[in-house]
Write a structure and sequence with these properties.
0% strand; mainly alpha; 444 residues; single chain
Amino acid sequence: MRRFELNMTHGKIWPVLLAFTWPLLLENLLQLLYYTTDSVIVGRFVGTSALAAISATTHICGMLVRFFNGTATGAGVVISRCFGANDRGKLREAVSTTIILTLSACVILTLIGVMSSRWLLVKISTPPDVLEEADTYLTIYFGGISGLLFYNIGGAILRAMGDTKRPLMFLIVCSVLNIILDLAFVNIVHWGIAGVAIATITAQALSALLVMRSVAKSTGAFSDLRVNWELSGSILRIGLPFGVQMAVVAFSNVFVQGYINVFGTACIAGWGVYIRLDQYMMLPIQSMGQAVTVFTGQNLGAGRNDRAISGTWTALFMMLGISSCVAFMLCVNAPGLSSFFSRDESVIEYGAMFIRMCTPIAVICCFNQILSGYLRGDGNSRMPMIITLCTHVFFRQVYLFVITRLIPGNVWAVGFGYPAGWILCAGIMTGYYFVWQKRRASIS
């Protein structure tokens, strides 16, 4: 299976980064289509209240899932370093340890998600006309979350070895299946929002089976599953701070949703439309950030910090150009894109407003994602966590608390909480990156 692997320690930098990133970008895009398809089909065939119900669950779903995915980054860094050092025995032990940790995570996150779904929806002031459908969707989603977790960890293992093609191929198959099942369960079986949730977890389960089969063939780790406690410690030391960062940021977004919810069903649905479309803006940036983490891990494993630094800045300038183009297209086509999700004029108006307000400023997130990607690849995930939590959580919550009292009833001011956090994070993250490099140079 080595024909799928990509060694990033040699060759011209930008083609290597692109060769790794484009399948990863398409993979993330297709994974996002799971949720976009849910929103489009529900908004068009079930109704505005059902679309608002899915919108109300967006950040809650993301909270626990992002915690796991962030923690999985630790596994990716450890595995990429073993791969860069060409230590196949240690790589097999790291994969085996990761799989056992994932089994434990599946049990814990399923229980937490199912037991807390309704409580969380009530806590974020979900309107009564939306609550029951939102609770149905969320309970089913978390009941089948193991498929998503195993797909994501399997993909992280393969990507750490430079393989982004097979996860993409599997996801193409499962995305098509998800769309077919969505349409069948909503329009033929008439299961409504429950059918959409069942379609999603069914497709995710298939993708998990396919990707874990590839991991077994590529690494041989399934022949002797056991925990290497030293590697487990390294995985958790690198991954837990990033997992906590992603979970807490997602949790803070739940409370942002609470501020949005007071403006009514149409605004909730419009904000949900913006969130879905904004994810397409963020996808290239996040994908390149993941690529930089693997690129840095492999090159530091091979003792090439100079190449890791060059790759970071190459990735940053590439993404500034690409994300600017995406932001421009989203702003120009904001009303038309919003109309894909709903025929309700109020929903379209709110969606277009949020898109045009936030997406141009989202370009600055290139600094946050790329520079933190380098730091995590270098084993430093603690400071990116602290910076992100301070700017995306603490500052954002203070901003929303103050602005809703200074300018009550102003939805524009509430929505600007996102861009305000991005701007502050970019400035601090860039400054810390240079401090880290200076410290690294003095040690070496």
